[in-house]
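I would love for you to help me understand the pair of lines that follows before we discuss the fold together.
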Amino acid sequence: MKKVFLGVLALMFLTVISCKEATDKAKEGEENVEEVAEETAEKVEETTEEVAENVEATGDVPTFSDPAVQEYVNAYEEYIAEYTKIVESKDMTAFAGLSQKGQDLATKAQDISGKLTGEDAKLWTDYMTASSKKMQELAAKMTAQ
C-alpha cells in the first residue's frame, strides 16, 4: 500500500512540475510574441515616416499613367487643401460639410486601388501613406482645439 501511495504521490509531484514548466514556457512564448509585435510596429512606423518624408520632400503630387488615378489624386489634393483651411479657420460647420466628400473619395479609392499596376502601385502607396500622415496631423490639430 505504501508503494502505491508513494507512486501516486510521485506521479502527482511530476505532474505539478510539468504543468509549472509548461506554464513558464507559455509565458516566455507570450513575452516573445509581444516583443516581436512591438518591434514590427516600430519598423512599420519608421517606414511610414520615411515614405511620408520622401513624398513631402519632393512636395509634388506624383504623376500616374492612368488618367482615372491622376484625377483621383488631384481631387484628393483639393480635399486636403480644403480640410487644411477648415482646420486653420476652426469652422466646424464647414468641417461637417466636408464629410460626404471624404466618404466619396474613400469609395473611389477602393475602386482605383484595384486597377493599379507596376510603378503606379508603388507611387500610389507612397502618396497615400504621406497623405494619410498629413491628414492625421490635421485631425490632431482639429481635436486639440
Q: What stands out?
A: Confidence is low (pLDDT under 50) at residues 47-58. Helices lie at 2-58, 67-89, 92-113, 118-144.
